[in-house]
Amino acid sequence: MKTLGNIIWILFGGFVIAIEYVIGSITLMITIVGIPFGIQSLKLAEVALWPFGKKAVHSSTSSGCLSLLMNVIWFFVGGLPIVLTHLLFGLLFYITIIGIPFGNQHFKLMKLAFSPFGKVVINIK
């Protein structure tokens, strides 16, 4: 079922979302200061390409204070538009019963886009 959901996701906009994250990542990595933010954007691109069967969990090796500071900077630099976009698409998909699983994926991506530092993406069974 995850494979079918991922294929439908890609056909109906998931590929475009992932490409946007990759382009954003490349532009963030132009400067040395932006490299950590670009890496987090790549993390979002991975989940945006194949969201079904993936989950973001807190990393046991993350430094709490640094992750918090980076999440605050991320939110104001680029996270807020991403969060609002996923919120809008999630609500639009919730209008129909068939779109609810896709809305759930947008809400999952929204939570990850809100605070990507200190989290790792794992595959769930």
TrEMBL record:
InterPro entries per record: Inner_membrane_protein, UCP028777, YccF
Gene Ontology annotations for the cellular component aspect, listed alphabetically: plasma membrane
Keyword Signal applies: no
Bilayer-crossing regions: 6-35, 83-102
Domain of life: Bacteria
Entry keyword set: Membrane, Transmembrane, Transmembrane helix
Record protein name field: Putative membrane protein
Record-annotated Inner membrane component domain positions: 4-54, 69-119
